[in-house]
Write a structure and sequence with these properties.
Elements lengths: L1 H5 L10 H15 L18 H15 L13 E7 L3 H16 L4 E8 L6 H9 L8 H13 L16 E6 L5 E5 L11 H12 L7 E7 L3 H16 L2 E7 L15 H25 L6
Parallel strand pairs: 1-2, 1-5, 2-4, 5-6
Antiparallel strand pairs: 3-4
Helix pairs in contact: 2-9, 4-6, 7-8, 8-9
């Protein structure tokens, strides 16, 4: 990280974990925030010197471990598997990963597909049509369709395209395991539901999450570190539940519509997201356990 920052004329000068997290978040906000409040696919596309990509790849190897190999299923029984939403390509990728893990013997109590009322883009409509996934009008539709395709849930019919701003709990399947889709309402002042909103809505809907529960976050490899830290802060700390996260590399998807390579810009943006999320996780830990900040 120090070497990467130096390539942009920045360095970390503070000491103490809280201060270093604050400073690192500020630095990445200045140099790696290509989204500027927009969606990930709307982020500014930038070109970088080969040395930036080289150092970034070394950092990724430390942060993300093996991106190409399949996640281990030696994680024990899972009470709740949360498949995180996104664009339809991400929903498909994450549904494929869950299906692989289930096929390898992973025990799951309930599968939850987390989405929102974000309207599907023209590209997403085209992908759904080419893959014969049925009508997809918003992110919850995309998640529902992706899970049905990946888990081979029969006779699923997408609801009509009439939409409102309210949350929804959608029963997708009951057998052999319950599969439930969630669309959370956006929080105050937000245009659409964020990961935080969906985590909160999951807790409300599932009810009685405790230290006896094991929650599996199923996502994409590039997003796994930041979403893992966020899940610890917003699910693990309040409930005591164990949090495990797995992420699929988009280049390994068997679906050509999904498979491509992430760019240097995308990785740098998610390095920033990880630092931002780790800072929030630290604050949540200190709030719950003040002695940690001594």
């Amino acid at each position: 990280m120090t070497e990467l920052f130096a390539l942009f004329g920045e360095k970390i000068e503070s000491s103490g974990l809280r201060n270093r997290l604050d400073e690192t978040e500020r630095i990445t906000r200045d140099i790696f925030d290509f989204r500027q409040g927009g969606e990930r696919w709307e982020a500014r596309k930038s070109q970088f010197a080969p040395r930036v990509t080289e150092v970034l790849e070394s950092l990724i190897a430390h942060l993300y471990r093996d991106l190409q190999g399949p996640p281990s299923t030696e994680i024990g029984p899972v009470s709740h598997a949360l498949v995180l939403g996104g664009r339809i390509n991400s929903c498909i990728l994450r549904g494929e990963l869950l299906a692989t893990l289930l096929g390898e013997g992973l025990e799951v109590g309930t599968v939850w597909g987390l989405g929102s009322r974000r309207e599907a883009t023209a590209d997403e409509h085209a992908v759904a049509e080419r893959l014969e996934l049925g009508p997809v009008e918003d992110e919850l539709d995309a998640m529902s369709a992706a899970l049905c395709a990946a888990l081979r849930i029969p006779q699923f019919k997408a609801p009509s395209s009439v939409r409102d701003a309210f949350s929804e709990v959608r029963q997708i399947a009951m057998d052999p395991i319950p599969v439930i889709g969630l669309a959370a309402a956006p929080g105050p002042g937000k245009l659409r539901a964020t990961t935080s909103d969906t985590y909160a809505f999951f807790r409300e809907t599932a009810g009685n999450i405790s230290e006896d529960d094991h929650i599996l976050i199923v996502t994409s490899a590039i997003h796994a570190p930041f979403q893992h830290a966020q899940a610890i802060a917003e699910l693990g700390i309040p409930t005591g539940a164990t949090i495990t996260s797995v992420g699929a590399h988009i280049g390994t998807s068997p679906t050509p519509e999904v498979r491509h390579e992430w760019t240097t810009s995308e990785w740098l943006q998610e390095v920033r997201s990880t630092i931002w999320s780790m800072r929030n996780m630290y604050e949540s830990l200190v709030e719950a356990h003040p002695k940690l900040d001594r």
